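Hey L., structure's done. Input below.
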Amino acid sequence: MRRSSKAGRVARAILLTVVGAVALVVVAAVLLTRTDAGRAQLVRLVEALASSPDMRLSIGRLDGPVPFDMTVSDVSVADRDGVWLTLDRARLAWRPLSLLSGVVEVTAVEAGRLAVTRPPVPGTEPAAESAGLPRLPVGVIVEQLAVDEIALGEALVGEPVQLAVSGNARLVDPADGLSGEIAVRRTDGVAATVDGTLRFVPDTQQLVVDLRAAEPAGGIVSRLANLPDLPPLDFTVRGDGPLDDWRGDLVLTLGASAEARATATITRDDDGRVLALDGTADIAALLPDRYAPLATGEATLRARGKRFDDGRIEIGEIFAEGAGGRVTGSGALDEARDAVSGRLVLSLPSAMPYAALAPVALSWQGLEVTATVDGPLSRPRLDLSATGNALSIAENAIGRAVIGLKAEALGPPLQPDTRFAFDATADLSGLAPQAPELAGVIGDEARLTANGTATLGGADIAALRLDLAPLAATFSGTVTSDAVDGKVNVERADLAALRAFTDQPLAGVVALTGDVSASFDLTRLAVTLNGMARDLATGVAQADGLLGRNVRLSGGFRRNADGSFGFERFSVSGAHVGLIADGSATADRANVTAKLDLPDLSQLDARVTGRGNVDATLTGSLDALDARLRLTIDEASALGRPIERLTADIEAQDVTGAATGQLTLSGSVDGKPATGSGRFARDAAGAVAVSDLDIGLGSVRAQGAFDISPASLASGRLTLRAGDLGDVAPLLLIEMAGAVDLDLTLSAEAGRQNLAAKGRVSDFAGFGASLAVADVDVRVRDLLGQLAADGKVALERLAVAGVDMPRAEISAEGTREATRLVLNGVVRGVDVAATAQVAMRPDETVVTLDSASASRGAQRVTVARGAAFTLRGGAVTIRDFTVNANGGSFAVSGSAGERLDLAVTARNLPLTVAELAEPGLGLAGQLSGEAQISGTATRPDGRYRLSVSGFTMPQIRDAGLTPLAIEASGTLADGRAGIDASVRGISEAPIRITGSLPTTPDGNLDLTVAGRIDLAIANRLAAGDGQRYAGSATADLRLTGTMAAPRAQGTVRLVGGRFEDVVNGVLLADINATITGSERELVIQSLTARARNGGAITGSGRIALDPAAGFPGNITLRATNAQLISNDTTNAVVGLDLAVSGPMATTPRVSGRVTVENLQIFVPDRLPPSVTPIEVRHKNAPPRVAERARAERERRARAAGGAFDAALDITVDASSGRVLVRGQGINAELGGTLTIRGTSSNPIVDGGFTMRRGTFQVLGRRLTFTRGNVTFPGTLDPQVDFVAEAPAGDVTARVAVDGIASRPDVRFSSSPELPQDEVLARLLFGKPSGNLTAGQALQLAQAVAQFAGGNRVLDDLSRSLGVDAVDIDTDARGNVAVGIGKRIDDNIYLGVKQGATPGSSRVTVDIDITDRIKLQGEAGADGSSAVGIGMEWDY
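Output:
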């Protein structure tokens, strides 16, 4: 007990001592601050603590009893730019002992003048993170607040402002009551005020809120908020009443620009208080332009909530709607029961209000986001879904997007280390990227799924899967903000999707698995892969040959942050290639090997055979790497020449530092030794020296040495000597020949690269060019900068790409500013001369023409002096470029590159200048016009106007047309060229063409063609073929579709047409036709014509406008009793029923039937006097005529070699009609059927016309034909084959008529054989020619003359009388008789004969009972008659 008492006394002593010490310190401090020195020391301490490198606090004086009632004077705050805040006086009086009751009681806060001239300059030190609004541990009572003047500078609010502030506040525990007052007044003459009152009385639960702010236009708030037009402000918040039935109103008006109103109520029900908020706002005019669309019109806000007495909170409704969209929601929170629930829906009907906020163009036609939260408050669950339709992001379209996310907190959600389990999905459909090449990569649908856990620092992905049309891949692993680690499995990757990026027919499917561990900055990377590409095709013949169809990839690669790297059996193996790499390179040791095996070099190029290998090794360490590379080709050939033991070795030491090394070459090519050696070294500064370079193959040798500075400037000398460049042809894989003797000198001076070249190339052939001699002597200064050159290049007999240059000479004379180039030469027979100043600078090249001309014969063009071309950044600027030609001109100015800005003008430019490029072209006329072109080369914009007067060309002249006048104008925009053109000269009225054309091949046509064409314009062209045209065609057409698939609408009408072919005897009159266009086809609505005899011809059909398919269609032609042919050899009256189908422009099919009603074939006695085309051959023609003749031959060759070849299937039926053959004594009737098959280029005729009956008459002697056939060998001139026999004295005479009808061959023969004159003598007179009388000899001569080409009077007489036969005969007594005959039908022939006496008249009737039995009857004027039956057989 005593010990305890003693311990207590000790403890009390210690406590009293401590308390006393503290009290002593406090008293000492207070006493110290009561002295001037103490207060000064306190001021310095405060200044030191408050100042920093970016801010300096200065306090002039501290007065009063510190700390109870303190006054500071002359306070200033400065930054790097000086003082920005001053305070002349401030006083703080408070009661420190009030802290013991948990309240700070301030009796007075007073200030004189506080001036802020500008905002402070931002500090260089990072700002401390804000902890949010301070939470006071004690209550605050301010009995008086008074600031006499606050002066704000113009830099703060846009004008100087002076304010006075007063007020008081009681901010303590609400159970003890709350109150506060504030009053702010402008003291600079502006009527702006802020008055506020807050009061809460605990006993009555009365809450009063009264705040009002008002200022005129141009006030502080308008200026600080940067409101348009600086409107006046009027803002009030008023509320008064007990908390169980309280109402407050808010009104904000900013002049007539904006208004906002809201009402809040608090009411009491059985178990809690209910809060209701309703408001509207129209504030778009106050917002910056980019935000204003979100608040256009009136926005509505509505909220309902309740706080239960047990602490629960329930949000019954949240509703907000405006131009930007609509938000609805509800929810509940119960901390006591650890429960939360809620739902929020965001609906955005249009993207228009957000357009200015997005960095790229956005659009959608409905976007809705729904979020729900439920579960424990400590581990809530989130379900988020978003659906959008018709989305477009930077013109990349998404038809529909559905995104979902389910997440669950696995701990307190607000703690930074809490993990969240998630399951996410994204489904996109209707994908249409802006870049067409991306369409194949992503397809039209995409799906992404992922699940795992995540924190704010990263995610552990259990499974992620991506499915695209060409790709299916999965990933699992960890992703952080700076790295990724995991497994990748590419199940399928279709390489064909990448075709649009490669311009090659890429194909194949890749499947692989791998492990990936990498930082996103790739300083650390480790990849292990194992996979295969199947059915691979790259479109590159060499790659496809080496890799084959299946390629396997395996192994790994790694790179570490310290720069070390390595391979782990990394290999690529294909059909004819193998690559393997292994080993590592670290700071301690390097041992990396790589081998490329090419077992069949022909897969690289068919001109090469054999095997090749490349071996590479890295040794040493990472800091001192040594490398060796060996290329070996053995037992190989190139261009058919052997390559043996060709080996190239490169060895280098310390490749990452001061590298040194050597090169060697050995082996043979085509039996010629290949040798080479050289050394190189790189110093620490990066300079490279190449020495002792000597490489040779056969007669070709390159030698020299040079240095390359760290600035990449070279100095040294190289020589190239070649007796025959063909020695190196196998290595270059191109046949070449020629000799070279060339010296190159490189030098560097004042940071500029110089080059001198001197030598000769002779008898060169290769690369598609040939050259007899090229003498080069050129010196170039500042090759890589502002280039200037001196020297000369002379060329002789240069031929490149079919262009021959017999001679050309280019000389240069350079200064520091520019190089003067002079060019003289002959190109394809055109004399070319030019002088120009070329200034080549690092960022541009300027070419200024002093003179330029081109001439051939009478044609000459010149370029006006001063034309300039500036090449800069991939664009060229053209200035004052004008071409003059024979009084006309063509001028271009502006720029061309990614963007176009060109002005083009033509003034009376003669089209004959085209003769410079193509002699004999024959163009004539003058071109005038102008054009302004902008936009891009693929989508130009602009306008144009042009006119061509006197336009003609050989085809137009040959067609008999007068020169044409063409006027056209239009605009270029949106990938189209508008056109409004007229063509005069085809007819009296102009042909009008209006509409637009695409500027790209796949664009759509939109053209209208209207006008009238007189068909007589074709007469001059057709006159040489004996054809004539008449009538007119009127067109009113609209062409749409594409060039490859045009569409036509409209009508073409042919009226009063007439066609006559005098050579073939064809005449069609009254030709009328109506052709209409209907989308993709032309429809022949009607076609009528009249033949020579009045027979009708009709037609109709359709032709599809499909050039690729040869314009397929169907056309029918019909005719009845139409005389289609009437000439000296043929007269045909037929009926037609024909169909033409298939591709009309290439291989149509012509089928149907031709019914012969009457066909008469006349065998002429002599060549008929019809028009026959005359073949003209030019001998020693002038050059222009010869060129025209050559062009015409090429045109005819192209026409003859065209693809048109019609298939034929036509039946010609003469079984019921009559086919009559007459002439040179022949009078025969035939019949039958023939079929024409094959093609138009090779018709095959099956069948023909055979003899029904017929006679052959020679000077009154009639013979009966025993054989007769008529065929048509592909022309309208038929082939005849007739044979007649009769007894003639002591022989049997035979007459044969064959050949074409217009030039038949008549031959007489007999059995036994006699000369033709003897056969005729016996046939006519029954006796040899030696026994003939003088009169009989004369008759025999007449007969011979007849078959040599005499008169055919009787044939002409029968044709004019309309009968089938006219005969003149003599009886046994020499009396003359004339007979005529006509067939009544196929089997009855009626004849009448009249002799020299009245009693000699006779009538005969022949009736064909069968083909071999005939009934013959005869009655004479003398009363005599006879009947007989005749029979005949062929044997």
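Residues 1002-1109 form one domain. DSSP finds 14 helices and 81 strands in the chain.

-- N.
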